[in-house]
Design goal:
Blueprint lengths: L1 E5 L2 E4 L4 E8 L7 E7 L6 E7 L5 E3 L7 E6 L4 E6 L8 E8 L7 E4 L3 E6 L1
Parallel strand pairs: 2-11
Antiparallel strand pairs: 1-3, 3-8, 4-5, 4-9, 5-6, 7-8, 9-10, 9-11
C-alpha cells in the first residue's frame, strides 16, 4: 500500500485547508485510512479515520467540529478538511493505512505534508 499526502501550505489563522491522501497498491481498500499530525517537539497525534467501504468516520474529540474526513472511492483519495485553522494546528500531517476504529493499529505510513498557520 502506498500513500501520498498533499495539500499542506502556509495559511493565516481562521483559514481553511483540504489535505489529500492518494492511496494505491494491493488491497488498500481493506484498510481504514487515518490522519495524524506531529507538531514540533510533540508526539504524533491521531486525528481521524475513515473506512473505504462504509465510510464510517472516527474523530478525536480535539478536532470534532473543525476537521472533516471524507473519501472518494473513484479517485482512491481520502481528504481531511480543516476549518478555522489556528496556530496550534501547525504540524506535519500524515495519512496512514491501518485497522478500523479509533487509533487503529497502523500498517502503512505515507510521507507527511506540512501545514503552517500564521497568526
Amino acid at each position: 500500500v502506498q500513500l501520498q499526502a498533499s495539500g499542506g501550505g502556509l495559511v493565516q489563522a481562521g483559514g481553511s485547508l483540504r489535505l489529500s491522501c492518494a492511496a494505491s497498491g494491493r488491497a488498500f481498500s481493506s484498510y481504514a485510512i487515518h490522519w495524524f499530525r506531529q507538531a514540533p517537539g510533540k508526539e504524533r497525534e491521531w486525528l481521524a479515520g475513515i473506512t473505504w467501504v462504509s465510510g464510517t468516520t472516527y474523530y478525536t474529540d480535539v478536532v470534532k467540529g473543525r476537521f472533516t474526513i471524507s473519501r472518494d472511492n473513484i479517485k482512491n483519495t481520502v481528504y481531511l478538511q480543516i476549518n478555522s485553522l489556528q496556530p496550534g494546528d501547525t504540524a506535519v500531517y500524515y495519512c496512514a493505512a491501518g485497522a478500523q476504529g479509533v487509533g487503529g493499529a497502523i500498517a502503512y505510513w505515507g510521507k507527511g505534508t506540512l501545514v503552517t498557520v500564521s497568526s
